[in-house]
Specification:
The complex is a heterodimer of chains A (about 260) and B (about 170). With about 260 residues, chain A is an alpha+beta fold. In chain A, about 50% of the residues lie in helices and about 20% in strands. In chain A, strand 3 and strand 4 form a beta hairpin. Chain B is mostly helical and about 170 residues long. Classes of the chains: A alpha+beta (about 260), B mainly alpha (about 170).
């Protein structure tokens, strides 16, 4: 891809709607086109700002209770109607319908409560994960020990994890010119074994943590910042990835997208 | 699900009482029509579609429906996809007031209902284009062009004019 990204491609990329090959082609173009990289970054930031501003309105006090009351009225109304019905076949059909209504009331009530609780729990978990990722990355930067596996070759790094972690992953090739793999560590996040892939982008060091996605619990928010470091996450092919670096966010995006694109193949 | 439904309803209805009515009606319609929901299919898209259809038959929604028809006519004329409408040579990101949440909220308020709903479903609810197409009952191509137009409108609204950063009115 040598031409500039079109408006359609830009939005598809930012919204994660491109296929793997198309995403790789876009990444390759971004690696050599500053104008498109800047534009992509601005579109991503606009998306982020819209997402934040768009969550503007909280549920008014008492609305949940009023909805439950209306649901109960609806249910009671249904019972009255059914008492008036004479035909037994009709009755059985309607009681069957009533069962669905009761199930829906239960579903919405439980679903709403669970949604709110899970969202709050998810935020706390996300903040804790950012802290752990930040600590581990800084520890690597500050430490004098080399990576547990030192290699720029993805065919060396990936097999090193065999038998050490309960999942497998893929590593991309054809990264941007000044981006390369330095090695990897086996480490732990939230007591789960993870692969910490170590890259550099120019002079900036990058850690990318890959772990198995467990259940449907909330992972990290899409991106976050901590003390000058940018944290990004993705999910693909049953894996969750979290990257952290002080490199320019658009360049971190390029690397993360390249790693994300090859998972689940 | 209630916080997400109420948030979208409040944006679309632009009035707290209307938004509450909208959510309440959606809730009751969902209860009555729950037997029609196929287990295993997308519950979120299903209930958002009920909300959106309920909105379209509301007082404020009727005006929006006329706007949708007009926009789709424009699309048939071609050329509405804002290719090249973004300046590539200047780092626009530095010129947009993205950190000013009040400005972003004001820019969202200026969007027409068809553009507002599509950008909220995409950016806030993080729905895929296919899901949005299901909720809004429009083709994916229309989803794409509306998202593009919404973002272009937001960019334009958030563009910092020369002098603003220094607090100078122009």
């Amino acid at each position: 891809m040598s031409e500039h990204l079109g408006g359609a491609t830009l939005n598809l990329f930012v919204d994660g709607e491109l296929g793997q090959e198309e995403a790789l082609a876009v990444n390759a173009h971004l690696a050599e086109c500053a104008a498109c990289t800047s534009l992509t970054l601005s579109q991503m930031m606009l998306r982020q700002a819209t997402a934040k501003a768009g969550r503007r309105y909280a549920v008014p006090a008492g609305l949940k209770e009023r909805l439950h009351a209306r649901g109960a009225e609806e249910l009671a109304g249904g019972v009255t109607l059914r008492k008036e019905a004479e035909a037994s076949t009709q009755r059985s059909l309607r009681w069957s319908g009533l069962g669905w209504v009761a199930a829906a009331v239960l579903l919405l009530a439980v679903g709403t409560t669970m949604f709110v609780e899970r969202r709050a729990a998810g935020r706390a978990e996300s903040a804790a994960l950012v802290t752990e990722v930040f600590d581990q990355h800084v520890a690597v930067l500050a430490g004098s020990l080399p990576p547990q596996v030192v290699s720029t070759d993805r065919h060396t790094v990936k097999p090193w994890f065999q038998g050490k972690i309960p999942f497998s992953f893929n590593l991309p090739e054809g990264l941007a010119e000044d981006t390369a793999l330095d090695g990897a560590n086996l480490t732990y996040l939230h007591d789960q074994p993870v692969a910490q892939l170590l890259y550099h982008v120019g002079r900036h060091r990058v850690s990318v943590f890959l772990r198995e996605r467990v259940g449907d619990g909330a992972g990290l928010e899409t991106s976050a910042d901590r003390a000058g470091y940018h944290v990004m996450s993705f999910e693909r092919g049953g894996l969750e990835g979290v990257a952290i670096s002080d490199v320019e966010p658009a360049r971190l995006v390029g690397l993360v997208k390249a790693i994300e694109a090859v998972q689940g193949r | 699900m209630l916080p997400a439904l109420y948030n979208l309803a409040r944006w679309l209805a632009r009035d707290p009482a209307d938004a509450e009515d909208l959510v309440q009606e959606t809730f009751l319609k969902a209860l009555r029509g729950f037997a029609g929901f196929e287990p295993g299919t997308n519950f979120k898209a299903w209930i958002f579609r009920i909300l959106r259809n309920t909105y379209l038959t509301s007082r404020t929604g009727l005006a929006a429906r006329r706007t949708v028809a007009l926009e789709d006519e424009l699309e048939l004329d071609g050329g509405v996809y804002p290719e090249g409408a973004i300046e590539r040579q200047t780092p626009e990101v530095n010129l947009m007031r993205l950190s000013d949440q009040a400005a972003v909220e004001a820019a969202l308020e200026q969007l027409s209902a068809p553009l507002l709903e599509v950008i909220l479903l995409c950016d806030v609810e993080e729905m895929k284009y296919r899901e949005i197409a299901t909720v809004l009952e429009i083709p994916i191509g229309t989803v794409m062009s509306r998202i593009a137009r919404a973002r272009l409108a937001l960019r334009t609204a958030l563009q910092e004019r020369p002098g603003e950063r220094r607090g100078v009115r122009v």
